[in-house]
Amino acid sequence: MGVANDNTANCASGHGHTVCVTGAGGFIASWLVKLLLQKGYTVRGTVRNPDDDAKNAHLRALDGAAEQLTLVRADLLDKESLDAAFRGCEGVFHTASPVTDDPEQMIEPAVNGTKNVINAAADVGSVRRVVFTSSIGAVYMDPRRGPEEVDETCWSDLEYCKNTKNWYCYSKTVAEQAAWELAKQRRLDLVVVNPSLVLGPLLQPAVNASTWHILKYLDGSVQTYADAAQAYVHVRDVANVHARVYEAPGAQGRYLCAGRTLHRGEVCRILAKLFPDYPVPTKCKGGVGETEKGCRFSSRRLTELGDGITPVSLCLYDTVISLQDKGLLPRQVAACSQSL
User: Fold this and answer.
1) Taking a C-beta distance cutoff of 8 angstroms, is the pair 75, 45 a contact?
2) What is the pTM of this model?
3) Which active-site residues does the annotation give?
4) What Cα–Cα distance (Å) separates residue 237 from each residue in 56, 147, 150, 272?
5) How far apart are CA 340 and CA 334, in angstroms?
6) Is 259 helix (H, G, I), strand (E, B) or coil?
7) Tens digit of each residue's pLDDT (9 = 90 or more) over 216-231
8) How far is residue 173's CA from residue 135's CA, in Å, rounded to a whole number?
9) Cβ-count burial 19-45 (b if 16+ within 10 Å, e if not)
10) 93 touches 21 (CB < 8 A)
């Protein structure tokens, strides 16, 4: 059985260059830091507390971290701390973002934090490009949209997000819109990556929201799956795209980073096939059947970059193996699958 191709170490274009990654300890950010170190960059990672050994150990353990990685204290709502973190950097990767159901705790940090990042990057004078991690949540939430493919020209409808109390998509949309507006005013080169739900191996010690989405189907905490559909993408693919759009001189605008859209039922069937000994749900919640189709996301701009998308079955496999390795799931032998 194969594993995702880790083709991130075959390009060492970052030697002599310094970049900053905000929220460096997060799921995507940790893999991005790993990739940037492999490429030879000197990386400055912002974290809440550089002295928290438990939360930062996975970053300090990365190859090259001792020589090339510095962790600095920064707060998205404290622009002066961002000024200090970005000073002398040629690039900024803004990955930090709150994830919560509370609109007051999500919207202000997302929007004002993003504005502070843009302003700080413009003020220090050394930053040539900012890569901002947005989300497909800023793209697809629109009840008027038909079955056509969703691409980078699409935006989520803010009124619909508010009416459905989808504060995650609302905050992602207003934060990205604020970033584009302010970057234009400050004449700052901005590129945005819009990933779907991100899966794959964990580097950080804690389970994040997207990984919990899979864990709950394996540990017996839920007995049914929702009538919902979601696009998935491997964390390595997301990290690769961030680095690619930073390095490519012609990169501009938004880049959707999303694989195939699957109904929750299909996700559970793949998990059950790969790991038949876990108590994976077999029924849809409420007995309503699998009616939700979800959106199809364009991969055209990603293909133009030269990047591919890891198959969903491999995303799921790598996620489960990682959960086992971290002791979050009892280890079970995976069934061999030709689809991998």
Assistant:
1) no
2) 0.93
3) 172
4) 23, 26, 19, 24
5) 12
6) coil
7) 999 999 999 999 999 9
8) 8
9) bbbbbbbbbbbbbbbbbbbbbebbbbb
10) yes
